[in-house]
Amino acid sequence: MKSLLLAFWMGASALAAPRPPTVAPGQAALVFALSAVNEDVATDAVNKVQVSLSDFAGIMPGHPRSAVIVHFCDISQSATELKVLNRIQRRFAAKGVQVLVIAQGGRSVQQIGDSIAPLKLDFPVLRDVEGLVASRYGISELPLTLVVEGNGNVFAIGQPKGESMESELEAEIQPLIKR
Prior knowledge:
Strand order of the largest sheet: 5-4-3-6-7
Mean pLDDT: 87
Distance between the termini: 61 Å
Number of helices: 6
CATH architecture: 3-Layer(aba) Sandwich
Oligomer: single chain
CATH class: Alpha Beta
Shape: globular
Radius of gyration: 17 Å
């Protein structure tokens, strides 16, 4: 009996540990389409409020980019990262970089909107209501950032945080914007 409980506990412990995402650099990014909280920004970017990764990257993007930064986060804990991502969007948009943020958690559109309004973000913030996109990507720990190449393949995956996030992401996107 003792060994069965130990085996159960060990199995339960392994399940609780963060697992790596289901995609890796070099693999195709999983396509998603989500509604934007900041509809005006989404409309400026893709002429609609439902934003898809395939709008920017993949086989036939409608608005092709050299790099797409997809940042999964809990908006209520990410003001610093959102400001950094906004600086990156402003600085590199003309060079073909697009930032997309996917908000996780059960917050309402109004709550997310209230959180991001003072930041005046220049990129779409998408709401993953049930965590379906995060689940498909195998994300078990937030924040998580993907850099996706224009061809739709994942270029880099990481968990940059705070102010160091800017230099880390710049280093990842530089080879993509120089192509």
